[in-house]
Design a protein that fits this description.
Helix content: 40-55%
Distance between the termini: 15 Å
CATH architecture: 3-Layer(aba) Sandwich
Shape: globular
Number of strands: 5
Radius of gyration: 16 Å
CATH topology: Rossmann fold
Structural class: alpha/beta
Largest sheet: 5 strands, mixed
Number of domains: 1
CATH superfamily: Phosphoglycerate mutase-like
């Protein structure tokens, strides 16, 4: 399976460098401006399916991808962004989150750990891998989920997981073979 992973378009939270997990915010004007290019790119990918997080910023982005591919958007709650708990809406630059970000088992206060996100995303990807053998699939989701998807598709170190940045409104391609 060829997997095309898209991070949702630009939002006001991205501009302000705020933690944005479960907040259901819209795209900013810059994010809306990214949609035509995604629509055009999707028209060339030969997609069999387009999956999206149900959060508005991802769903609007996925709608453009799906329109380009001539497909419906299929939503799955396992693709929502990590729950940042008490950090939701706070500024990245304020710090204080490294214990939770840098340790797989530590949950953000009132939120999720890295393990929690992996535990919901990997089974979803396993299902896609079995269902879409030899086909092309797009997933539109969020920053940390994009990082988790990368760990499913490629061997990466913990440091690479935490430093990987999937730009908003960009498509990254992965070849997903059988898992051993």
């Amino acid at each position: 399976m060829t997997l095309y992973v898209v991070r949702h378009g630009w939002t006001e939270y991205n501009e302000k460098r705020l933690f944005c997990g479960r907040s259901d915010i819209p795209l900013a004007a810059e994010g809306e401006a990214q949609l035509p290019a995604l629509r055009d790119a999707a028209s060339t990918l030969g997609l069999a399916a387009v999956y999206s997080s149900p959060l508005r910023r991802a769903l609007v982005t996925a709608s453009a991808v799906a329109e380009g591919a001539g497909l419906p958007v299929l939503t799955d709650g396992r693709l929502v962004e990590r729950d940042f708990g008490e950090f939701e809406g706070t500024n990245f630059d304020a710090g204080g989150d490294m214990l939770y970000r840098g340790n797989f088992a530590c949950r953000y206060p009132g939120g999720e750990s890295n393990f929690d996100v992996v535990a919901r995303v990997y089974p979803f990807l396993d299902e896609l891998r079995e269902k879409y053998i030899g086909k092309n699939v797009a997933i539109v989701t969020h920053g940390f989920v994009c990082s988790v998807i990368r760990t499913y598709c490629e061997d990466v170190t913990d440091r690479e997981l935490y430093t990987f940045f999937h730009p908003n409104g960009e498509i990254i391609r992965y070849e997903v073979g059988s898992r051993k």
